[in-house]
Write a structure and sequence with these properties.
Blueprint lengths: L6 H17 L12 E3 L7 E3 L11 H7 L27 H4 L2 H17 L15 E7 L18 H8 L1 E8 L5 H8 L15 H4 L10 H7 L3 E6 L10 H5 L2 E4 L4 H12 L7 E7 L23 H5 L10 H31 L6 E6 L5 E2 L6 E2 L7 H4 L3 E4 L7 E8 L3 H9 L28 E5 L9 E5 L3 E6 L4 E6 L13 H26 L9 E4 L13 E3 L10 E6 L2 E6 L9 E6 L3 E14 L2 E3 L2 E5 L6 E3 L3 H10 L2 E13 L3 E8 L6 E10 L9 H13 L5
């Protein structure tokens, strides 16, 4: 961790650091851009420009922003030195004594730094502030497609420059193959955190966090940081998200990272007497990929179609080599577009004299498959190939060794404990991840991971996980509830999956399964034993009740439908499914089912398909619930229907059902077609406790969020 010196010792440490710089061996911080250039033999180290004093920059701006920076404790290892302590030069005041003219320069620079301290991250008491933190998540970004990871295309020049003065983690893995599994995990450093985004079921939204679970904005705020979230993702951009509410400043923009960067720069300069923590969640690298010049450079001469942009392969559609090249070119262009915004952010921070005292975290919540096998695209429920779960992590800034390339197995859950140690934060939080500071050249021993853990999305986020464990040789997938397991050889790629078979593989699976049962299952059981309490709105999807629908045989699965068989069809992925009948040409029976809902009084809404499809309007439903005397016809609001009809589009919109009181832990429902030439398409019920309206989105906000999530491909 960084040691924050007392006022009495500050001047001595500053002089010590100044002497170290003059001797040319201090590698704590990025070397001066004015004096130093890369050595040809080793691009990760720096050498002086001809004609400049070794290790000394006469730029007053550089001296004032570096000599007063937070210091590494003098009794710890130098962060960027690989040699043993015995081989390192010993610094003494004699060096300066032997170079009196240099001492005069040092004293002058120290005086200038003291006077400029207020503008360069120094408190009024004279002690350096803790570093600021900018944490950028490039949603669905693949590690292998960043040029700092060895990719052949120059997709990330600005991120590469940060990587040169920081650390790149080469074997880094996400804890979920989808956003709603991954984000709560890396925001707490836990494998099994309580859910903290919006759009969850009540068993996810109402779970009470454990006593030592802390979100990183809470930890930062308790240590004197200003906290701000700048999100382009709807699940992290509204009051129904506990994570969103936990930040001091909340900014949601359904826009590009460059627009978010403008908001970040405006915010960081509002108050200069406290360090800041800015979390930025960008969506360019997630489908749909909408690129403008010059970022479409790798698909400019290719026949890009709407399905390439949206990331949807229709059933039976052939995917050619050209299609695969388009998918990769779109992903690469989105990285280049995001990278330009990262560069603008770094430039903006530098213009405000904040860059040198800011720790950068650049990573992703998961990756993406790009149809390398002609069919696997995106990060849907079963996709756990390396392109989906291996993600980038770049750390740069004070206390981070420049030019480091770390080959150890690391995980997203390691980021929060790393920040806690690197910044010297005080917290009682417990973590499953470990601090990466030892891998950055710091003190302490790094404990190599036996496996990395990723959760595959299954029935839900609060049900028994599908465990995906990986080391350097194998990937093990264990569906604990179903007692099913698979073993794949590493690397496990979309284009080349190799199943491991034979007696030795059986022994390997038994070993990993034993580790899961001994280490992970107790953690899961402790999580699943946490209590519930009402914490705002929740959503229950039709698919979660499908097993209890009566009459039996009234519903068929996707692929079995004919649209004229007088039956309902359940379509969608996992539990996020829609119940559909083409009521204008078939007569499906009324169906009844019960949703698992806690006792209470709720305003209830129904999510329905809205618009014109195949020349017929959607949707019209006959609905009856609980003690309703008779069914009522439910249709989307007319204004929503008219707007979509005029645009020739269709989407899901919410229709109010009324207020209901649940007394027996179940919400009983009967649905039927309303006829009148309409489709009947419903997907979910939203329950809003009447006594917690302050945590609920408005109807307009809910519809806007649904449209954004649909555009990302989550609600196909």
């Amino acid at each position: 961790m960084i040691t924050w010196p007392s006022r009495q010792s500050a001047n001595q440490l500053l002089l010590f650091e100044a002497e170290a710089r003059l001797s040319g061996i201090c590698a704590m911080y990025p070397t001066c851009r004015r004096c130093c250039i890369p050595r040809a033999a080793d691009p990760n180290r720096r050498a002086r420009r001809p004609g400049t004093p070794y290790g000394l920059c006469l730029s007053s701006k550089y001296m004032t922003t570096t000599l007063k920076r937070p210091l590494i404790s003098a009794n710890r290892a130098w962060p960027c030195e690989a040699s043993s302590r015995a081989q390192r030069p010993v610094l003494t005041r004699g060096f300066v004594a032997e170079h009196g003219w240099l001492r005069i320069v040092v004293v002058a620079c120290l005086i200038a730094a003291s006077r400029a301290g207020a503008d360069h991250g120094v408190t009024e008491g004279g002690s350096p502030e803790r570093p600021n933190v900018v944490w950028i998540v490039l949603d669905a970004c693949r590690a292998k497609n960043l040029s700092c990871y060895g990719y052949e295309r120059p997709t990330s020049p600005h991120i590469d420059r940060l990587a040169e003065r920081g650390a790149v983690f080469l074997n880094h893995f996400a804890q979920g193959n989808q956003t709603r599994l991954s984000v709560p995990s890396y925001m707490t450093g836990l494998y099994f955190p309580t859910y903290s985004l919006s759009g969850g079921r009540w068993r996810e939204m109402w779970r009470v966090p454990g006593g030592n679970e802390r979100l990183i904005p809470t930890i930062m705020r308790e240590n004197g940081y200003r906290t701000g979230i700048f999100s382009a993702h709807a699940w992290l951009g509204n009051v129904e998200s506990r994570l969103y509410r936990d930040f001091g400043t909340c900014c949601f923009r359904d826009d590009t990272l460059s627009v978010l960067v403008t908001s970040v720069l405006d915010w960081v300069t509002e108050e200069r007497n406290r360090p800041f923590f800015a979390y930025v969640h960008a969506m360019e690298t997630h489908f749909p990929h909408r690129l403008e010049s010059p970022y479409e450079r790798w698909v400019r001469d290719l026949p890009v179609r709407a399905w390439h942009v949206s990331g949807y392969i229709a059933p039976g559609q052939e995917v050619t080599e050209v299609d695969r090249a388009i998918f990769e070119g779109l992903h690469d262009g989105s990285i280049l577009m995001s990278d330009a915004a990262v560069g603008a952010l770094a430039t903006g921070l530098e213009s405000h004299a904040l860059l040198d005292n800011t720790v950068f975290v650049i990573m992703s919540d998961h990756g993406d498959a790009l149809a390398e096998d002609g069919k696997t695209l995106g990060h849907k429920d079963p996709y756990v190939q390396d392109e989906v779960i291996r993600v980038p992590l770049i750390l740069a800034g004070p206390g981070v060794c420049g030019g480091a390339r770390v080959g150890e197995l690391t995980e997203n859950v390691d980021v929060v404990p790393t920040l806690v140690e690197l910044l010297g934060l005080d917290t009682d939080a417990a973590f499953d991840g470990g601090s990466l500071v030892p891998l950055l050249g710091g003190t302490g021993a790094w404990r190599p991971k036996r496996y990395t853990l990723t959760r595959q999305f299954g029935e839900g986020r609060d049900t028994m996980p599908v465990f995906v464990l990986r080391d350097f040789e194998h990937k093990y997938v264990y569906h604990a509830r179903m007692h099913e397991e698979q073993l794949w050889r590493v690397p496990d790629t979309v284009a080349d999956r190799v199943a491991c078979t034979g007696p030795r593989c059986g022994d390997i699976m038994a070993t990993v399964r034993g580790w899961v049962e001994a280490v992970l299952l107790p953690k899961w059981e402790a999580h699943s034993a946490l209590p519930y309490e009402p914490q705002g709105p929740f959503i229950e999807y039709i698919g979660n009740a499908i097993d209890g629908i009566t009459p039996k045989g009234a519903v068929v699965s996707k692929g079995e439908q004919s649209w004229t068989d007088n039956r309902w069809t359940l379509m969608g992925d996992a539990s996020i499914s829609a119940l559909i009948s083409s009521g204008w040409q078939e007569d499906a029976p009324a169906v009844s089912f019960a949703l698992d809902v806690p006792n209470g009084t709720y305003d209830v809404k129904l999510e329905m398909h809205t618009g014109i499809r195949d020349g017929h309007p959607a949707s019209a439903i006959l609905f009856r619930a609980e003690d309703d005397a008779k069914p009522k016809v439910v249709k989307p609001p007319q204004e929503a229907f008219d707007g979509l009809k005029a645009a020739g589009e269709y989407a899901y919109r919410s229709a109010s059902l009324g207020r209901y009181t649940v007394c027996d832990g179940r919400f009983d429902v009967t649905l039927d077609e309303a006829g009148d030439g309409h489709w009947a398409v419903i997907r979910a019920f939203k329950f809003m406790p009447v006594d917690q309206t302050e945590r609920s989105m408005t109807d307009e906000e809910q519809d806007e969020q649904t449209a954004r999530i649909e555009a990302l491909g989550y609600l196909d």
